[in-house]
Each structure stands twice: as structure tokens, then as C-alpha cells.
Predict the 3D structure of the following.
Amino acid sequence: MRVVICGGGAIGASIAYFLSRRGAEVVVVERAGIANAASGKSGGFLALDWCDGTPVEALARRSFALHASLAEELADDFGEWGYRRMTTFGAMASAESSLRDFSGGRGLNWLSEDVVVYRQLGTTETTAQVHPGLYTEALMRAAEAHGAKRRDGEVTDLLSRDGTAIGVAVDGEDIAADAVVIAMGPWSILSSAWLPMPAVFGLKGHSLVFDTGDKVPAEALFLECQDEDGSVHSPEVFPRRDGTTYVCGISSQSPLPVDPAQVGPDDGALERLEAICRRLSPVLADADILARQACFRPVTQDGLPLIGPVSGLAGAYAATGHSVWGILNAPATGEAMAELILNGASTLDLSAFDPGRLRAFDAAELG
Ligand SMILES: Cc1cc2nc3c(=O)[nH]c(=O)nc-3n(C[C@H](O)[C@H](O)[C@H](O)COP(=O)(O)OP(=O)(O)OC[C@H]3O[C@@H](n4cnc5c(N)ncnc54)[C@H](O)[C@@H]3O)c2cc1C
């Protein structure tokens, strides 16, 4: 079976890997470079049980286990992607002395004195991380080792005949397929012009990558703090195995540019994030900044991803809208999509993610 995957983010690359491992002929079409968007610029934080009690619980738990096994199986051959277990804390920048320090005095002395750790959110049993861009590229290389092809170019249409998907148009050329997967992150909204897809929106986040060497231990932090103008922020801090520390924060509802390569920061957002970081930690205050970036996470109307067949067009599938957990949930999405496309059903129950639960977006609404 020949499957064309539209989009080379963490979701597209993971589907490509699991499909090609099972013998499918796979083509990944990517318009702006593998992992150029959120899958290269996000936190890569992973949690076993933070989705418990929601419809995403089984997907997240299976993904958390797959992240560990994929790192063990593939990293030696396809380039390691910084997978490691972490301890995770909630902290607050506050002069309030009644807050207890839950750090147990371990490691967190790299933070400023007024940052208090008030809660342990995860242990090395329940929280972990990857470098998302390196994960995505390695999974794509592993897929290629099983015969998958990457194709640079923009998908501009989905081709169909008698109610069945038969391929895609890429920069004016038709590519035939038995199945087509829409995995274009927030740009999946554009596919609403080609097939009856529910809406997918983009929510922007900004991030900085600091060169901190070995000064920050493997401890993730979810912080609450105030800007100089009094506005409250919730930066997330993820020190990585490669000696960098990733910090994201300052979300916005800025419009999604049609071309993924045109995504840039909002005016002043990175400067505000940098000022917050420099106040939070003397280590961050002294560190060089290696990357200043912004990206959009894909969200749906009900907050749940779209994973499954698109109703009304046989052979068309969606795998998008993973919101804040797209890196965590990429492996089990890939595994389940491969089973669904090749066997007609997946081991994991995908009914909560059925794209048919939401009405199809009318592309005319884009204006
Ligand atoms: C600031 C921030 C921090 C985050 N932190 C975390 C985290 O710690 N843990 C976690 O699990 N998740 C996190 N996320 C969420 C996660 O990054 C996303 O859910 C995930 O990356 C989405 O992956 P994707 O493959 O669906 O989309 P994307 O990464 O957006 O990839 C879509 C791809 O499709 C391509 N494309 C678009 N249009 C076309 C076209 N017409 N033809 C061909 N290709 C096309 C794009 O170029 C892009 O490469 C974070 C998100 C943000 C914004």
C-alpha cells in the first residue's frame, strides 16, 4: 500500500516510521523542512499521567512507554535525540515566605532567591523529555531506512475519484496514493478546501534556548511569575542533555502565516521572555542565547486531536490537533495510524479522536 503523508512534523514522521516498519510504501511531503515548525521548536516535555482522567489517557501512557523503547531501539543507528527521565517541579517567583520549598535543597540553587519550589509535579518514573526536532529527524531517518521517501514541496490539493482519495498534488505534480494522511499541524486548516476536515487552529508560543552547559540539572520547572508590568506568566523551563536550557512562554493569538517558513515572533515577546528568564535565574542571566523562536501548536474546537479517517472521503485520514502534547503523543499516534491504515483498526481505541465528531470547516470562512 502506498501512503502519502502531508507534513513532516513529529506526527508525520512518527506515522511514516510505524507505517514503513510494517512494509507500507511511504512518501512524506514537507514544504518547509522536516521539523521546521512546532516539532522543532517546542519543549519536548513528556509526562506519563498528566492526561489521566481525560480521553487522551491511553494515548499518552502508550506514547510515554514508546518514547522510552524507541530511544533504546533507534538512537544508536539514527542519531540520539536527548531522551532522558527528569524530576519536575512547580515553582513561583514570590516574596511570600509561607510557601514551602519542595526541592529538598537539591539542585535548584541555580534559581534566584525569590523563586520558591512549592510542589513536586513529577518523578523520573513519570516525567521525561526529548529534543523534539532531533526526535522528528531521527524517526524520519528510521522510516527512510525502511524505504520511506521524503519529498520537498507544498501539497496544494488532494486528488479523489468516486469518493476515494487517490493522491495529492505537489507543486503542480500529481503523486498517486492508496491513502493520504493530513498531518500539517495548524496548516491542516488549509486542507478544509480539499476535503471535509474539521477546523484546526494555531496558537502561538515563544521560546528561547540558553547555553547553560552543566550548570542546570535534569529538573523541569513549571513557573508562575509576574512581568514588570504586573501581568502573570507561566514559563516552562526544560534543561536538556545537550547542555542547553529551553524556556517557553508568552502565548498569543497572532494569525498563522500561510507559509510555515514565515512564522516569526510577536513584537517585543522574546524580549519580555528574556527579561523574565534573566530575573528568574543568575545562570540564565549570564548564559548566551542560542535560539530565539516562535511556533504554533495545532488545536481543535474541543481540544482533542483528530486521529482517524475523514468521513466522506475513503482513504483520507487526519492526524493533527495534538495541542500542547504533540511531542508526547506522536509515537502512539504513529503506531495507531499505521494499524488503522494497514489493518482497518487500531489496538488503541481512537473513537474519542474521530474527526467525524466535529463539523467540517467551510474553507469560505477563511475569507
Ligand atoms: C511553545 C510550545 C511548546 C510546546 N511544548 C511541548 C512539550 O513540551 N511537549 C509536547 O508534547 N508538546 C509540546 N508542544 C506541542 C507540540 O509541539 C505540537 O503539538 C507538535 O509539534 C505538533 O506536531 P505536528 O507534526 O502535528 O505539527 P507541526 O510540527 O506544525 O508540523 C506540521 C508540518 O506540516 C508542514 N506543512 C504545512 N503545510 C504544508 C503543505 N501544504 N504541504 C507540505 N507540508 C506542509 C509544515 O511545514 C510543518 O513542518 C509545544 C508547542 C508549543 C507551541
Remarks:
- The chain has seven helices and 20 strands.
- The two ends are 37 Å apart (CA to CA).
